[in-house]
Amino acid sequence: MFWIRSYEKSSSCYSCCEENRSLFAVSRAGGTSTLCPSQRKAASAAVVVCSAGSAGRTGVGEKTITNGRPAAVEVTVKETRKGPSGPEVDSRSTAGGVVEDVYGEDLATEDQLITPWAVSVASGYSLLRDPHHNKGLAFTQKERDAYYLQGLLPPACVTQELQEKKVMHMLRQYQVPLQRYMALMDLQERNERLFYKLLMDNVEELLPIVYTPTVGEACQKWGSIYRRPQGLYISLREKGRILDVLKNWPERNIQVIVVTDGERILGLGDLGCQGMGIPVGKLALYTALGGVRPSACLPVMIDVGTNNEKLLNDEFYIGLRQKRANGQEYAELMDEFMTAVKQNYGEKVLIQFEDFANHNAFELLAKYRRTHLVFNDDIQGTASVVLAGLVAALKLVGGTLAEHTFLFLGAGEAGTGIAELIALEMSRQTKAPLEETRKKIWLVDSKGLIVDSRKESLQHFKKPWAHEHEHLKGLLDAVKAIKPTVLIGSSGAGKTFTKEVIEAMTSFNEKPVIFALSNPTSQSECTAEEAYQWSKARAIFASGSPFDPVECHGQTFVPGQANNAYIFPGFGLGLVISGAIRVHDDMLLAASEALARQVTQENFDKGLIYPPFSNIRKISAHIAAEVAAKAYELGLATRLPRPANLVKYAESCMYSPNYRSYR
C-alpha cells in the first residue's frame, strides 16, 4: 500500500494551478495523479510509506494493488503539533479511534484557515455522486466490480426503463406542481441521463412542470427552494473580472448560453436574481427537445438588483439587496459580459437573451446582433412560433397572410416582434415594401390603439406601427373599428379577451383566429374554454400556456399551444451544427415554415394548428436542417463542407440520454 504524504502548497503553485484547476485529478487507468508543475516538484520530495495490516491486509481506507497497478491512490495531509513533551502527532490518528482526520481539520481551531483539498476519482462513492456518469441501480455487476461500487449499492441491478417507470410513478403521487418541479431538479443533480430520458419520453406531461407555467412559481419562490448552483450568477460585484468568473465554470466547450437579468420574468414582472429558473428551464429543453449536449449549455443570471420591494424585504432572497442599476453602469456590465463570453468561448457560442425588460431587450439585440451570435426568444422566438401557427391556420380559414388583418393587444417585445416577422413574411410573399405590409397590422397598448397622432410620445419600437386612424382607448372599440381576422394577445394581462371582444370577433369572421399568448396560465388573455364557448365553437385558438381539451357544442377541441419550445431548441441546434456566426431574419422565417409543415391533416381535424409535442425531436431536426441550410445559403456557416442530408446530420448530432456501458 502506498501513502503519499502531502505537502504544504507553495505560493508559486497558485499561478500554474490557474491553468490546471484540478489539484489532484487521479487517473484510474494509470493509478497516477495529475499535478501542476510546482506540485510535481514538491511531490518528488514526498515520503512514500509502504505498509500492510495484519494477515497481509491493508489498513483502514487503503486499497490493494491489483493487476499490477494501484486500485486507488490515497492522498493524506500530515500535519504535526508538539505536545507538552514534544512528540509529533500524526494526523492519520483517528478521533476516538473511528474517523481519520485526513485533511487535518480537527487539528485547527474554527477561526483558523484550512485548504479544501480535493481528490477526483471516477469510481466508488464519488462516481455515485457524479450526475454526468451516475447510473444508480443500473450499474451492472461487472461495472460494480470494476469501479469499486460493491456494498455502495443494493444488490439489485435494474434497467433504465424500470428506473424511469419508478420515477414517473413517484412524480404522479405529488399533487402540487412545484413539488414535481423540485423532484425533477433533484433528479437532474443526481442522474443527468435519467432526467433527460424522463423528459424526452414524457414531454407532454412534464413540459408544463419543467417550464411554463410551473417554472413561474419556481422563480417566485427560488430563494426558498434554492439548493445548489445550476449556473453562473454574475452581479455588479464581479464588474471588472467577469472573464475570471466565466473561467470558474467547469465546462470549457460551451455552445449555448441563456442569460437573463430577471426584470421581466414571464408575466410576473421583476423577480431579480430569482429569475435564474428561466435559463435553467430553457437549457433543459435545449437538451431534451433539441439534442444540444448538457455540458455545452450554460445558464447565466446577470444580477443588477431588483425594484421588487417584496423581494428586497424577503429574508430568503438570494440576490443583491439594492435597487436596479441602469444607464451607463448597466451597459458597461453587459458589454463586459458579452466581450468576456466571446473571448472565453469563441465566435460561435449562441447567446440567448431571455426575459429582459422592453427597454433593454431591444437595445441589446440591436447592439450585439452584428458582432455576436445572439437571439432573443421573447422577440424572435415567439414571433417565429406564432408565424408558424398562422401559416398553418390559413389552411383552415383560407387566404394568404396579406389578405388578413391583424390586431395585437400588447406592444412590447413579443407583440412588436411577432408583428415585424409577419410583415417580413408578407413582404417576401408579395414583394411589397415592408412599410406597406406593416399597414395590415395594428397594435393596442396600455394607452389604446397606436396611431399616428401618438407618434411623438411613442417608444422607438412602437413607431413603425403608428397608422392613420382616430385614437381609440379600449380593445373592444379597436376590434369593432379595425375588424381584424386575427386577434393576438401578448399583453401579460389576464382576462382581457372578454366575452364582448370574442363575440365581436365572431360577428364578422366565420372562423376568428384568436391567440392568447401571455404566460403563465393566470395571465392568459382568455382560456380555451372561453374562446370556444363565446365563439360558438368557431374560433381557431392557440395559447402560450397549456389548456386541457374542451367539450363544446358536441365537439372535442384540443387547444394548440404556441410554445416557444417548438422553435428555439431546433433553431439553436441548427446554428450549432452549421457553425453559424450570426442570426439572420431569414433563418426565423425558415424555422416558421419548417414547423408549419409538420402539422398533419389529422392534427387539423382536431382543430390543432401545431403538431403534438410527442414528435418534438423529429420536428427540431427538421427546423435545425432548415436553419442550417439558410445559414449556408447566406454565407454565415463555418462548418464545412456542408453535409449532404442536413436532417440526418442534425439527428446524428443530437444528444442521447441512454446509459453508456463502462469498461
Topology:
Blueprint (H helix, E strand, L loop, with lengths): L1 E4 L7 H7 L5 E3 L4 E3 L2 H7 L4 E3 L14 E2 L2 E2 L3 E3 L17 E2 L3 E2 L23 H5 L12 H6 L13 H12 L5 H14 L1 H10 L1 H8 L3 H7 L1 H4 L6 E4 L6 H6 L8 E5 L16 H14 L6 E7 L5 H4 L14 H19 L4 E4 L4 H11 L5 E3 H21 L8 E4 L3 H18 L3 H4 L3 E5 L2 E2 L25 H8 L3 E4 L9 H9 L5 E4 L11 H7 L5 E4 L6 E3 L2 E3 L2 E2 L6 H11 L6 H12 L4 H5 L10 H18 L12 H8 L10
Parallel strand pairs: 1-7, 10-12, 11-12, 11-13, 13-14, 15-16, 15-18, 18-19, 19-20, 20-23
Antiparallel strand pairs: 1-4, 2-3, 5-6, 8-9, 16-17, 21-22
Helix pairs in contact: 6-7, 6-9, 7-12, 12-22, 16-17, 16-23, 19-20, 22-25, 23-25, 25-26
Descriptive account of the structure:
With 663 residues, the protein is of the alpha/beta class. Among the domains are: 211-372, Malic enzyme, N-terminal domain (Rossmann fold, 3-Layer(aba) Sandwich), CATH 3.40.50; 379-561, Rossmann fold (3-Layer(aba) Sandwich). Helix 7 crosses helix 12 and helix 19 (475-482) runs parallel beside helix 20 (499-507). The longest helix has 21 residues, at 377-397. It starts with a strand and ends in a 10-residue tail after the last helix. Pfam families: malic, Malic_M. One of its GO terms (biological process) is malate metabolic process. One of its GO terms (molecular function) is metal ion binding. Residues 188-369 form the Malic enzyme N-terminal domain.
